[in-house]
Design a protein that fits this description.
There is one protein chain. The chain contains 15 helices and four strands. By secondary structure, it is mostly helical. It folds into two domains: 265 residues, no CATH class; 118 residues, abc type-2 transporter like fold, CATH 3.40.1710.10. Helix 2 crosses helix 10. It is elongated, with a radius of gyration of 29 Å. The relative contact order is 0.13.
Length: 417
């Protein structure tokens, strides 16, 4: 089949574009490292770090240099919390650090010699709580237990502290109205941080790594001039649309496997909440991967080499968790951040996935996020076509006049046979 026949067969040209993009991915070791290493490594790392989910009876060493009834009461309250267990009482910090180096304990509670003295003077008493960050939740457990003991000690000593106040200050405290705090747990009252965070992070890993792959491929094409092969049949909308669609379908085909690994296998392996119906998750992942692909191809306007996409990772990391509305109510953030929520595919995608996967929502319950993702597909598809045409024309203008564009201008499967 010659080039003219392929030009008249849009489906064949689209298939050749998909095949060419898949071959480019398979031949690039850095791209494979980003995809396989990034998805697998980060997916396993986050799940391992939060694997305990809820930490109970974490071994802790206590260093008490005060040796007073107050310090013993503080230690008793600290040990009574469900998060920690006091398993060693070394004489000094040197011994406690040695225990932590040997992995005998995951935290240290340090009470200085003036702990009770400062409290008796009405001054702020100081203590230190150290935790091992080998698993993040061990450190959180030590902090939570120390904070609980501190609050209980404060409640016990508050009546005695009021005696130090003058009559006017005491009267003002007595007349102050009490504030009643009423809390309503909306979801997940018994599970831990991992169950809350990991589902959102898994979707974010798909978004981040796919953007890096697309950015590296697009930047490499602009750097070596191979982008000109996409303009062999002109830069009209039809030609650009076939190239953009072919690229996006190739990325989606590869990342469908990674999505199954992250969203299907890892929740089973690490007991992550997964109560959503699989077919609804599939219907969500399709526009999510498409919108992300078109968004990445639109961002190719700013990538001139294969290394520059690494710089965008800090902008598409923790902030997207907040923009998604999972960790902070979307209705309470300023309007400009809400606009960013609707502009980035990761934000509505993460929120919709958490609703389906962790809360058992249906497609009807996520209809707003679902519509936003398909609208992003349409908008970013048009912008990706415009960006590709702009980059091709810019590459043609920058070519030396003596250069022969024919070798670099072969389009996906368009070589003469």
């Amino acid at each position: 089949m010659n080039a003219s026949n392929k030009r008249e067969n849009p489906i064949g040209l689209l298939a050749e574009c998909i095949g060419q993009e898949l071959r480019t991915i398979a031949r690039s070791r850095p791209i494979l490292l980003v995809m396989i290493g990034g998805v697998v490594f980060y997916g396993l790392l986050y799940n391992y770090m939060y694997a305990p989910n809820l930490v109970r009876r974490a071994p802790v060493a206590v260093v008490d240099l005060s040796h007073t009834p107050l310090s013993r009461e503080f230690i008793r309250l600290f040990a009574a919390t469900p998060q920690v267990e006091v398993c060693a009482r070394p004489a000094d910090m040197l011994g406690a650090r040695e225990l932590m180096k040997r992995n005998r304990v995951v935290g240290i509670l340090y009470l200085p010699a003036d702990f009770a003295t400062r409290t008796g003077r009405g001054e702020q008493a100081l203590f230190a709580a150290f935790g091992n960050t080998g698993t993040f939740l061990d450190f959180a457990a030590v902090q939570t237990a120390a904070a609980g003991a501190m609050r209980e000690i404060g409640a016990q000593l508050r009546p005695d502290m009021l005696r130090l106040l003058g009559p006017e200050a005491l009267y003002a405290v007595a007349q102050a109205p009490t504030a009643e705090a009423v809390g309503t747990v909306l979801f997940n009252p018994t599970e831990g941080y991992g169950s809350y965070l990991i589902p959102a992070v898994l979707m974010l890993i798909l978004f981040q790594t796919l953007l890096m792959v697309i950015g590296s491929l697009a930047g490499g094409e602009r750097h070596d001039g191979s982008i000109l092969r996409h303009g062999r049949y002109g830069t009209g909308f039809g030609a650009m649309a076939r190239v953009v669609a072919g690229k996006a379908l190739a990325y989606c085909a590869v990342y469908a496997v990674f999505a199954y690994f992250l969203l299907g296998l890892l929740p089973e392996a690490f007991d992550i909440p997964a109560i959503g119906r699989w077919w609804e998750l599939v219907l969500l992942i399709v526009p999510y991967l498409l919108a992300t692909s078109f968004f990445g191809l639109t961002g190719a306007l700013f990538f001139t080499d294969s290394e520059s996409p690494v710089l965008m990772i800090p902008f598409f990391s923790v902030g997207l968790i907040f923009l998604s509305g999972v960790s902070y109510p979307l209705e309470l953030i300023p309007w400009y951040w809400q606009a960013a929520h609707y502009a980035l595919p990761a934000a509505p995608g993460v929120l919709a996935y958490v609703k389906i996967n962790s809360m058992g929502a249906s497609l009807h319950d996520i209809r707003r996020e679902y519509i936003v993702l398909w609208a992003q597909c349409a908008v970013y598809f048009l912008t990706a076509c415009a960006v590709l045409r702009h980059n091709i024309r810019k590459a043609r203008r920058s070519m030396p006049r003596t250069a022969d564009p024919a070798p670099a201008a072969r389009t996906c499967g368009a070589e003469e046979r």
